[in-house]
Amino acid sequence: MGTVHTLSDLRLERMPQLAEAKGIHEDWTGIGDAETRRKLQNRLNVRAHRKRKAAQSQAPALPAPATDVSTVCWDEDHQTVTLLPAQLANTIPRPPSPLIPPMFRGTPTYPTTRIVFPLTSDHLITLVQYNVLRAAMTNLRLLSALHTVPSECSQALRIVPVPTTNATTFSGPDQPVPPSLEPTPLQRAVTHDKWINILPHAVWRDNCILAAGTYDSNDMRRDFLGGLWEGFPGSEAERRGLIAWSTPWEISGWEVSEGFIEKWGWLLKGCKGVMEATNRWRALRGEEPVVIEI
User: Fold this and answer.
1) pLDDT tens-digit readout, 39-79
2) What's the domain of life for this entry (predicted)?
3) Is residue 111 reached through a cis peptide bond, with omega within 30 degrees of 0 on the bond before it?
4) Longest dimension (CA), the chain
């Protein structure tokens, strides 16, 4: 005769996917509307992520295994920042001469200095800032907009303006604009700060234009470039800015810092590609993904 189970034999457990729910109003398991269900799931994921981060900050830091240590290096051939295992990076020959652009050498403003690779952590902050600047200038060039760079910046960078017949031109005669930088109807119709055009994500650009007047555009530009011109502490440059890892005109090549997201994340609404790219680069370093409601 088979075993007869009674209600007292049943063991009730809380569903793990609802571990962070604060009440029945956050139970998404029976909701049919996809948008509402996804919003509740995101809320619980954000809460769980913050709890993990809080626990990690209180736990004693453990040294990472030597095999997992990576060093940021400059790929001269591809003009990008790249991550290499520390053991491999240490075998890279140190060049006999500085690997910095000639425009920054031997002038009163930029005296000659000796730079060796791999760089120390202090140098890497400046390298990250410089790489963002390089990416920004690349996108400006693709948009035939180098003439919009402020005069004090163009003098420091030795920029020679390219003649143009139309100050609002977005592309040159022999240089098509990449689809990711193609101006949106809003960009063409509404006067806005021209630096917004270099953002390689159409929704992000439109968000910045639509929110004009509600935020300090110069403040955001400073954070975007990591304080390269105005300057702020190196530790803040790493936390507040962006990182350009590869192709400047593709959002997949960019990473947004946690500090930038905390301050400007509200302008990333609808910018799923920005967060996907950011978390892809974070995953390569073994870091937790950043979760925000977009």
Assistant:
1) 777 777 778 777 887 777 776 665 555 455 666 565 656 65
2) Eukaryota
3) no
4) 97
Q: Which residue has the tokens 């917004």?
A: 196
**φ, ψ (nearest 5 deg) of residue 84:** -130, 150
Spell out a b/e string for 142-167, using b for 16 or more CB atoms within 10 Å of the CB, else e.
bbbbbbbbeeeeeebeebeeeeeeee
Q: Which amino acid is at 22?
A: K
What's the rounded Cα separation, in Å, for the pair 69 and 47? 29
Tell me, rounded to whole angstroms, the distance of Cα 147 from its chain centroid. Answer: 26
Q: What is the residue whose two structure tokens read 């300090």? A: 216
In three-state secondary structure terms, 242 is strand
Token pair belonging to 186: 């809003």
Q: Which pLDDT score is estimated for 251?
A: 93
Q: Which residues of 7-20 are buried (b: 16+ CB within 10 A; e: fewer)?
A: eeeeeeeeeeeeeb
For residue 185, give both structure tokens.
Answer: 């109807």
